Amino acid sequence: MYLTLKQKLLEVPEGTAQQIQMLYGYDERKMNEAVDILEEWLKKQNHFLKKDFPRIYLETNIIGSKGSIERTKSKLDKLFALRTVLRKFYEFNDIRNEFKNLFSCSYILAMPKLTKENNRLFVLKVIGNEFFDKVPYLDYYKIMIAYVEYFRMYDYSDGYRVVIDYRDINIMNIIARLNLVEVKEFFTVILSGYGARLKGIHIISTSKAVENLLRIITPLFNPKLVARFRVHGTLESLHEVISQDMLPKELGGTGRSLKEIQDDWIDLLSSKETSEFFREINKAQVNEAYRMDDLKNEEMGLPGTFRTLSVD
Fold first, then answer.
1. How many angstroms separate the CA atoms of 58 and 248, rounded?
2. Can you give the residue ranges of the CRAL-TRIO domain (predicted)?
């Protein structure tokens, strides 16, 4: 069942990996050589608590760093350090039950098909029902990190596009509960740690309050990423930039319903195989006492610095 679900939820057409590799100057031989270099480097990092990783995990991290081995080293180092310092984002064991309230007021999932640019489409739809006030925002950050961690191991894409549907929620309620320090920490992990490349953030809403929300959060990002935010007042506007065959029924698409897809993702992320993967990858932390260089928390953009987050 696990393999069937994985293939159903993350479609990667034959030849996609080769296409993406070519964008960054790689073929199979060069990629194998790059992974070999990373494996040797990992063995020499005294401060890493885990040094052995599946080769595909290292390969997708190279792709996420636009093919740069040195950038991949830096991001892995930063990711493992962030995982150590910001443990709260990784405290999940039972996806199905720990996020039960979240799944009752939100759909949060990846769509099965890659876009024509080989981006993975991520959809978040929030419903302002009785469960919404019971869900700490930390749960949203944790489940999104679980997804990105899973993608690093089992997906092959060239960045992400995000669609956020706020039509069924009072945005002022969202703003009232925002903790900007926590938002900053979360995006530091996603952008600086995982190096996730966000190609577009599409918000569906007719509320003028969305402008207030963007005014609050966009100062955290650099202008390049801010320019990738776009608000859509109608589904027709969204369809101008994202094909309907990529979208679920609720967003005017031809895909399956959000509930059907989310139920499958809950099964996959709650499976024995995925739980074992999360437990193993969470060992990838650091012991700063053994670090050879002097990477500081400030350099990782942790709270207190509020450096502007960049995006590739």
1. 31
2. 95-259
Burial class (CB in 10 A: 0-12, 13-18, 19+), 265: buried
Residue type, 260: E
- Contact status, residue 251 vs residue 123, Cβ threshold 8 Å: yes
* C-alpha dihedral sign at 267, 282, 310, 102: positive
Cα–Cα distance between 87 and 259 in angstroms, integer? 30
pLDDT, residue 304, reads 42
In the block, tokens 């993967």 appear at 277
- E runs forming strands in 66-115: 106-114
Alpha-carbon gap, residue 64 to 113, rounded angstroms: 19
Q: Strands 120-127 and 160-168, how do they pair?
A: parallel
Mean pLDDT by 10 residues, the chain (312 residues): 82 95 96 98 96 97 96 97 97 94 96 96 91 92 97 96 96 93 96 95 97 96 96 98 97 97 97 96 94 53 49 60
Q: How far apart are CA 246 and CA 258, in angstroms?
A: 12
Q: Which residues pair with 108 in a beta bridge?
A: 124
pTM equals 0.92
